[in-house]
Here is the input.
Amino acid sequence: MSVFREILASGPGCAIANGLLNGFETVKVKLQLHNPKRPVYHTPTMAGVMTQIIKEEGLVRGLLAPGLSASLTRSVIYGG
Here is the structure.
């Protein structure tokens, strides 16, 4: 019975962790796509890109929402 409870707890646990860390994943992908020849971000660092995205697009629309549904679906399937 404890294995079943652990499986049920792991899916939501992974989903919560991914939801909280989705902003970092968003910035990581934007930095991977960053082209130094045609810069989009003034300071191409994690903090610089986060700051610029929040100023231009807002916290939720710019950092937290992009890719969230795919990330949550993946975490629930992989985690439990």
User: Anything to note?
Assistant: The radius of gyration is 16 Å.
